[in-house]
Amino acid sequence: MAGILYVVGTPIGNLEDMSYRAIETLRWVDFIAAEDTRVTLKLLNHFEIKKPMVSYHDHNIREKGEQIIKKLLAGENGAIVTDAGMPCISDPGEDLVKLCAQNGVEVKVVPGPSAAVSALALSGLNTSKFVFEGFLTTNKSGRYEALENLKRETRTLIFYEAPHKLRDTLADMYKVLGNRKISLARELTKIYEEVNRTTLEQAIALYQEKNPKGEYVLVVEGACLNDGEEQFTQEQAVEMVLALSEKGVPLSQAAKDVARQTGFKKGELYKTAVEHMD
Ligand code: SAM
To answer: 10: which of 114, 145, 155, 276 is 20 to 30 A away, CA to CA?
Structure first.
């Protein structure tokens, strides 16, 4: 009979957040698939757990995934952990769970902390509906496109960010989303835990004076489409573009202005307006 894979959440900073069940599971399984075996060894040493480990990270997912599945199919029980938090959440694990599903291997969860949900809970923003975006791409145009796609999203937005990219990310968010409320959750559960509930404009000013340090989750207010802001249908937006163009405004400029005013994508407005003109 095939073994079971346990997806085990580990602390995001404070070792005391390790659950009893996580410790028991890591003691009980036959092997542990770990993102960075050196990081996990420290965790295992702390809880006096001795267990064979298999390195499983973004760059060996396919090859190691097959090896792990073979072990599970041969009847071994295994666990997957990452450096911090829940596996599969901006961390390795998703592929392994898919492989297990394809091979009929049972997967169970031993839930632990996740920085995204922890930051959301502390944000003071709307927690009833939210969107998790993980890390924005480092590619400039890709980032703008991702943010443009979120411009009309009314649910609270959650992003992970590295300190060296924080300034650029805040500036890009401000440019595309406008001045919204943001909660910056830093170093959660660690000594320098801090939550700054502010606005994008104020956050940009703050980090002009201060160097971003540590791990951040950015929780950004969703779009307030009903807060006095007029809502437009795409048809109305295209008509506005055509009207501007008739007044002599170049079409691409008209599409840009109306996109800013209505939240629709400039490219889409431009394309549809051209189709109407043909
Ligand atoms: N799987 C993890 C989870 O469930 O939270 C996330 C792993 S992801 C590779 C690492 C990112 O999570 C960091 O860059 C940061 O954005 C966020 N993060 C992790 N630990 C954090 C902490 N203690 N405080 C704030 N953000 C944290």
So the answer is: 155
Distance CA 164, CA 87 (A): 24
> Each residue of 181-231: pLDDT tens digit?
999 999 999 999 999 999 999 999 999 999 999 999 999 999 987 555 567
Say if residue 260's pLDDT is above 60.
Answer: yes
pLDDT value of residue 230: 64
Radius of gyration (C-alpha) of the chain in whole angstroms? 23
Q: Between β-strands 78-81 and 31-34, what pairing exists: parallel, antiparallel or unpaired?
A: parallel
How remote is the CA of residue 219 from the centroid of ligand 1, in Å? Answer: 13
Centre of ligand 1 to C-alpha 13, Å, is 9
- The tens digit of pLDDT for each residue in 116-136 reads 999 999 999 999 999 999 999
Handedness of CA 212, 216, 222, 223 (dihedral sign): positive
For residue 140, report the distance from its CA to the centre of ligand 1, in Å. 22
Angle between helices 266-277 and 234-246 (to 10 degrees): 70
Compute CA distances 101 → 16, 88, 117, whole Å: 32, 14, 26
Ligand 1 neighbour 159 (Cβ under 6 A): no
Query: Which of 197, 207, 146, 135 is CA-nearest to residue 176?
Result: 146
Ligand 1 near 148 CB (within 6 A):
no
Kindly give the distance from the C-alpha atom of residue 115 to the centroid of ligand 1, in angstroms, as a whole number: 5
| Ligand 1 geometric centre to CA of 203 (Å) | 20
**Atom number in ligand 1 closest to CA 189:** 23
Burial 135-155 (b: 16+ CB within 10 A, else e): ebeeeeeebeebbbebbebee
